[in-house]
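Key idea: predict the complex, not the pieces.
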Amino acid sequence: MLFPTLTFAVFFAVVFAVQWALAGRPRGRKWFLLLASYVFYGWWNWRFLGLIAGSSLINHAIARALARSESPRRRRAWIALATVLNLGALGFFKYYGFFVVNAYALCSWLGVRCALPLLDVVLPVGISFFTFQAMSYVFDVGARRIPPAASLLDFALYLALFPQLVAGPIVRARDLLPQIETPPTPARLDVGGAAVLILGGLLKKVVIANWLGVRLVDPVYDHPEAFGRWDALAAVYGYAVQLYCDFSAYSDIAIGVARLLGFQFPGNFDAPYGASSVQEFWRRWHISLSTWLRDYLYVPLGGSRGGFARTAFCLMATFLLGGLWHGAGWNFVLWGALHGTYLIIERAIWARYGGAAKAVARLPRWTRFALTLLTFHLVGLTYVFFRARALADALELLSAFSRAGAPTRITAPLVGLLVIGWAMQGLDGHRADGLARRVAAMPPVLVGALAALAVAVIFGLGPRGVAPFIYFQF
Amino acid sequence: MGSEGSAGSVDAAGRTRRDAARTVAVFYLAAALLNGPAILRTAERLEHGGVAQQFLVALAGPLARISRGLGVDRLRAAAERLADRWFAECPPAPSAGSAH
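Result:
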């Protein structure tokens, strides 16, 4: 079920009404929210409900065993089992095809016979997100950072709670589980903040991301050989803005919807294209994934505790795996490797000045602005490998920069969308708090009416049909 | 962690649950009226068919008639015309091989 659809609108009206009607019955409310979350997920393909239910059952059982166990060796074994099972499921559904194709290519190159079966494996929506949530829960219970969930119902609801189920943010158990164990029944709801998040998200997704995709990015990326350098450049800018508007829209709507149900999710974006270094970019982009990778991969590998070579290894390993998390393809591996390389170079440059953050803060304003532009262009050009369907397509698009030709896709309305999409970062983080407070101060009827007017205009301005969110494929 | 509690957080400035429910109810009613004909079009095209689609079409039919009768569908229609004018001027995507 997609957020900006009629089906979701009807679904949410029912969920909002019933879950608040059950506010005095916490257990009934939890069961209802779990049922609603499974309907939300099963609407896409009910066959995969078994996967998320099975993941809940297995990870809950392992976490309980971890909490009971006092033996370090046994605890390590439970954690290893959870890792193997979670990554095994993710690996099968997401990477089996990639593995088999590359195994065949390698066997062919070596001149040996390969007998792996070719299966048409359907990728379950959101598997990367809920698998990472389940793993972080088990790791945190294993490290005694959090207690296990009080019941299977609580854990199943943590894993499946519908606003964040299919495309994040990846909400940690320490943030969400306490809210699920004692479902929040706040006397007052932050309707102003939720309205700003949801309407801003709809504008970003329905109008900006969808039009940029349909009119600029898709045509150029689908046929890069037909375009010259100006259109290729516009498509590179277009995809940077489209991806931000698409993905941050999902996070914003998820956070806003959760807030209307009384739950608080952490923010996932913080004006990422305003970053003055790639390191800062990763502190502002898909924050829930970057902090996950930092806490459960980069730091356990050694992080920055060793020398420069060790840190460089940890950065590269983290970003190679981060690239693979996004998709099973060499283009994603290269995208991750490039980001890892940028971070290593940055670390080498800024090390003598006490780190990038401190050094950049001391620079004159125009130098910081130049670094922001440089960072954006690096990130944007690297997206070519992220957006292209294969490595060859990415190289074809980059080769378009060497071709002359008048621009054919650049129109004033599309440039306007690029600028507005970029400017929407001005609502990230706490920047929209003032607007949210102004909305909150309005009479309830006026807020409802104005939101309805905004929705009519937003959906009227968007292209016909519903484009799925880009991050659904991950 | 990043920007916890972005776009305002639950605080004393929030609404009571009754007021929040009123806001949501007004939103749904007004949005249904303003988007009546578009909701009907969407309901008719729903893939799932069956009872859900029949229910939505049955609900959206009268809504669309009221919306047109009151003339409140004009805002969305105007936005659609504007979008068509702005974005229809881009040439369609070329077919493969039609290089410069």
